[in-house]
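Model it.
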Amino acid sequence: MPEITREQVEHLARLAHIRMTDEELATMSGDLEQILGHVSQVQAVAGADVPPTSHPIPLSNVFREDVPTGMLTQEQALDQAPDAEDGQFKVPAILDGE
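Modeled.
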């Protein structure tokens, strides 16, 4: 089973700019070690005849067909806008000069 040390967790926390107490570092290293242990068990069981999947059963789209109906005109869409200019919504600038 792979070993995750407290120092490795501390290094990752520092890279992610996450402050962790000594207790949190110890707990996290144990938790991550358990997770990697479970992943190793799954890898050992999964053979070449088992395709990788994200779900145990196949999923299909159950939504209705997307058919556009009753579209607004440009004037209708802009009618209730707080501010509009040249046929578009006008919003405050968030970047200087761009």
